[in-house]
Amino acid sequence: MDKQIISYFEGKLNYSEQNELFQKIDSDDELRKDFISTQNIIGIVSLTERNEDEETEQQQYSDFIKNVSKKKRRSIGISILKYAATVALLVSLSAVTIYYFMFHRQHEVASNVIFVPDGQRAMVTLHDGTVVWLNSLSTLTYPSHFAGGIREVILEGEGFFNIAKDPGHPFYVSTKDIKVKALGTVFNIVSYPVSENKAQVTLLEGSVLVYKEDNIKEAVVLKPMENLYIDNNDKMTVLYDEDSEQLSLWREGIYYFNNNSFGEIIDKLQTYFGVKIIVEKEELLSNRFTGKFRQTDGIDYILKVLQKIKPFTVEKDAENNLIIF
């Protein structure tokens, strides 16, 4: 196996060396097969939980890459099956949060897709060192390496981003409604297909530029602790909230509601717990609640607390996973 492939997966290549490697891969079928085989193994292994300290984990990772490089391609194929079986067992025993991981070649760059099922969370570190947390029912599409002058990923759902600083390569997050441009910063994005608000961006550190895909002229620059909301009428609103950090506590399995409407809370509960909620009493939707819950509390407990604040009746259809108010 080419030494550059080993160095690439150990994170030791700079941008110039990476481009050189991918030019070689593009013109060498055998090298491409070695690269894809190694990448697939690493993708599968990355699904397992990591309990080691960072230094030990990095050493084990490097040893693993070098060990893979010594195997013949047939052995690599066998290894993939073994790791896949191991991951399948881990999924059933420890509820690993990453549900789906896919590789494919597109425009000479491999694309990765991660989908997180309801009730789960996932964390992924991108090639440039950017750390992304994904909430329930969220999908992140990102390249195996960033090529060219920009870094860009696609998000559907909710994601918390800690962007690796690289002034020469701005970072973009695209959703169905907005685009966020950042350099080195920390922010949270909510953009589910169905929600009371089309999108919400919460900035915790640094600054970001937010704009609708078709209208960069009306871009908004956010400051720390500011929240940008885009409602279903495409109206953009920016609000300062000194408690903005609470909104990303979902990474720790904590759900924070701060004067949220009942409609907003229902959206979140459906996403977090994978249930369908029907509200027959529309007057409930305008009520607002503030509170903090743990995911382990469960939806029944959360509803009982809300009922104490504003009484309402609940009907459950367990067979259809349905809750009716």
Task: Describe, in plain words, how this protein is organized in 3D.
- The protein is α+β, with helices and mostly antiparallel strands and 325 residues long.
- Among the domains are: 1-96, no CATH class; 253-324, Phage tail protein beta-alpha-beta fold (3-Layer(bab) Sandwich).
- Helices cover 31% and strands 35% of the residues.
- It is built from 7 helices and 19 strands.
- The strands form 3 sheets. Strands 1, 2, 3, 4, 5, 6, 7, 8, 9, 10, 11, 12, 13 and 14 form a 14-stranded mixed β-sheet that branches. Strands 16-19-18 form a 3-stranded mixed β-sheet, with helices on one face. A two-stranded antiparallel sheet has the order 15-17.
- Helix 2 crosses helix 3 and helix 3 (29-45) runs parallel beside helix 5.
- The longest helix is centred in the N-terminal third of the chain and has 22 residues, at 73-94.
- Residues 44-52 and 71-107 have low confidence and may be disordered.
